[in-house]
Amino acid sequence: METTSRVGADGAPRKGTAEGVPTARRTVDGYLKAPFPWYGLDEAFTGPRWLMQVAAAADGTVQHGSTGHGEEPVLRGDAEAEKARFAVVVTVASSPVRHTGDGTGVLDATTVSSAAWLAGSGLLAYTWPPQMDHTLRSDWLDQQTETAFELADELDRAPWSTLSLPVDGVPVEFHYRESEFGWILAGSAPDGVHIGAYGRGMSAYGLGFAVIGDIRTYEA
Asked: How many independent structural domains does the chain possess?
């Protein structure tokens, strides 16, 4: 599985974002550099849309990124934070096996498991048990993230099931699982780009995905 971004799922803020404060608004510049189309919820979703983050390789090539839909979640482990209704769509470029930038190693091809891992760890970044002391959150997050990584490599086994959802109007089979913190989806678009998604408070069963015609519409 592609592990380029294992240090942190795209869309999960880690720098300069205080707990209890919404994610800092991102600019559209990084998204415009991507050599692949971005995906979001289709036109059936009429709520707020917002940018998150993009991840790029050492040479500046954009590898994946996220777009948000609904109520922007905050990094706060309490009951109020858990009421946020949102869905995040992760777009992962289709990449073959390739050499690392320094030429000393090889990176695996991106797969649906790559999207599943990014979606699973992205969800964890916004959720942790309300009763947990903040000083314990780092250890809990490390443990849960490792579990999400392992689960992403076993998409054909429980707790994963399958769910057919439209992507640009074409039915696509997604891998789907639920946790106490929300749900995770992962599949591939007809054009080969991999799609991950995670959310809470919004049912995954009624979602549809589509290429974003103009990513600037997500910029506040």
From this structure: 1
